[in-house]
Design goal:
With 477 residues, the protein is α+β, with helices and mostly antiparallel strands. It folds into two domains: 21-354, DD-peptidase/beta-lactamase superfamily (Beta-lactamase), CATH 3.40.710.10; 365-476, no CATH class. It is 44% helix and 12% strand. The chain contains 18 helices and ten strands. The chain has helices at 21-26, 32-46, 88-101, 111-114, 130-135, 147-151, 156-161, 180-194, 198-210, 257-267, 277-284, 342-354, 365-389, 391-399, 403-421, 423-430, 438-441, 446-476; strands at 50-57, 60-68, 82-83, 228-231, 234-237, 254-255, 297-301, 304-312, 317-323, 328-334. The protein has a six-stranded antiparallel beta sheet with strand order 2-1-10-9-8-7, sandwiched between helices. A two-stranded antiparallel sheet has the order 3-6. Helix 3 (88-101) packs parallel to helix 8 (180-194), helix 3 packs across helix 9 (198-210) and helix 14 crosses helix 18. The chain is globular and about 85 Å long. Residues 1-25 form the signal peptide. Keywords: Membrane, Signal, Transmembrane, Transmembrane helix. This is Penicillin-binding protein, beta-lactamase class C. The chain crosses the membrane at residues 371-391, 403-423, 443-469.
Length: 477
């Protein structure tokens, strides 16, 4: 279940953005047809509803296309808008850095300088700088704030206000921890310092200059294709949780593969420049052991360190990467989300292909994982039925004196029920302390949720049947 519940963004740069001519000459350059063949086979193999992908090289788009279909049966193309979840953070960081280049924001100035309304029940919050927000070293954590209340906010101003009772998990600048609050605060800084709504600022200062005409953070401007979730290998369209339909900086961007091609070219230092060279380099410079930069972080794919960021918004998955050695860029957008990250596997193959390799066609792993979970769910139902049917036999054996052994078996039967009750907390542990709700677990984690629910129900039914059987045996005696 690689990259399952974690769905965390990690990624990107260890070095410059250009290579020497000799290095470039040594790198194989797959043709658009080769890339298209690989992607078409990958779509067939992964079984996702649809995805789009783009590959760039320095200042040009080598290949951009879509595969599969949307929820209405229309073909997915490179122009199909999709939510890209946490890929949004790189756009938010860029928006902040345009304000830095204009002299309206300073990275090492406290956030409260720009947001006087930013207050927390922790004096240390006043020391959080803009840089620490973008590097995710602010000390903010899901464990210290009421994430559920914050996500119910209808504006970034309300979101900031919802943090007032929160505390920090560490002193600012001392520890890296992935937390969406950092980028919602950064988006609010853009609004205040840029003197216009966050979405308008992104459109005017990032999307439009790059020619990203089908990108936005508001469904009033660009309507994304509906996403999907998977249950035991079967996909169906589903609206994402209402609280994630926002215009925020942590995961609000809607875009297309075609538009991301222009973005990746710019991130490689080519095409239209919306940042000063120093600011672009700063956005890619990793800090701390986590090697996270500003909406990017260092990640090894194959034998190389790349700029990478992935995203999961419950009904969509996406991943983008820039190869600093070859000047290539990659992005994959999937209109579905499951326990297995197919988008990442497809992108990893593209990276290998760009290096002259012959990648295996990804796919099958998600289906295998979900098939196993489905079989386990079926087994849980069978065991639950058997547990109910054999309850009287169990009670009779206990009455006959096998109390210790049968009592231990009773405890064992209780385990699935306890696990289901603790499921959100267990998922939170797997996600390094990030807040996980029951509603969220009914989306991309649905196969696991159904398995645990059926196991818990079987456990409860067996316990109730045994309790009733014990009373029955006792009354007979």
């Amino acid at each position: 279940m690689q990259r399952t519940l974690a769905v965390l963004a990690v990624a990107a740069l260890a070095g410059g953005l250009a290579t020497t001519p000799a290095t470039q000459a040594a790198v194989a350059r797959p043709s658009a047809r080769t890339i298209d063949t690989y992607l078409a086979e990958a779509w067939e193999s992964t079984g996702v509803p649809g995805f789009s992908a783009v590959v760039t090289h320095h200042d040009r788009v080598v290949h951009a296309a879509g595969y599969g279909h949307d929820a209405e049966g229309n073909p997915v193309t490179e122009h199909t808008p999709m939510r890209v979840a946490s890929l949004s953070k790189s756009f938010t960081a860029t928006a902040v850095l345009t304000l830095v280049d204009d002299g309206r924001v300073k990275l090492d100035e406290p956030v409260a300088t720009y947001l006087p309304e930013f207050r927390m029940a922790d004096d240390r919050a006043g020391r959080i700088t803009v840089r620490q927000l973008l590097n995710q070293t602010s000390g903010l954590s899901d464990t210290g704030v009421d994430i559920t209340s914050a996500e119910e906010a209808t504006s970034l101003r309300e979101y900031v206000a919802a943090l007032s009772d929160g505390t920090l998990a560490a002193d600012p600048g001392t520890r890296w921890e992935y937390c969406n609050v950092n980028y919602e605060l950064a988006a609010r800084v853009v609004e205040v310092a840029g003197r216009q709504p966050f979405g308008d600022y992104l459109r005017e200062h990032v999307f439009t200059p790059l020619g990203m005409s089908r990108s936005a953070v508001d469904v009033a401007d660009v309507v994304p294709a509906e996403g999907h979730i998977s249950l035991f290998g079967l996909w169906w369209a589903r609206q994402e949780p209402e609280q994630f339909l926002d215009n925020g900086g942590a995961g609000g961007v809607i875009t297309t593969a075609d538009d991301l091609g222009r973005w990746l070219v710019s991130q490689n230092g080519h095409g239209t420049s919306i940042l000063a060279p120093g600011s672009l380099a700063e956005s890619h410079r990793p800090v701390t052991d986590a090697a996270y930069a500003m909406g990017w972080g260092t990640q090894r794919i194959g034998d190389d360190d790349l700029l990478v960021h992935s995203g999961n918004l419950f009904t969509y998955t996406a991943v983008q990467a820039v190869d600093p050695e070859t000047g290539r860029g990659f992005a994959v957008l999937v209109n579905g989300a499951g326990l297995y990250d197919d988008a990442y596997e497809v992108l990893a193959g593209l990276v290998e292909l760009s290096r002259g390799g012959n990648p295996e066609i990804p796919g099958g792993d998600r289906q295998v994982v979900e098939l196993v979970l489905g079989l386990l769910a079926l087994a849980a139902v069978v065991l639950g039925v058997l547990g109910v049917l054999r309850a009287r036999r169990w009670a009779a054996a206990r009455a006959a004196g096998n109390r210790w052994w049968l009592g231990a078996r009773l405890v064992g039967v209780s385990v699935p029920l306890v696990m289901f009750a603790a499921y959100p907390d267990l998922a939170s542990v797997l996600m390094n302390g990030r807040t996980v709700t029951w509603e969220q677990l009914m989306y991309f984690a649905l196969p696991l949720t159904v398995l645990l629910a059926l196991s818990g129900a079987a456990s409860a039914a067996t316990l109730v049947a045994r309790a009733a059987a014990l009373r029955s045996v006792g009354s007979v005696r």
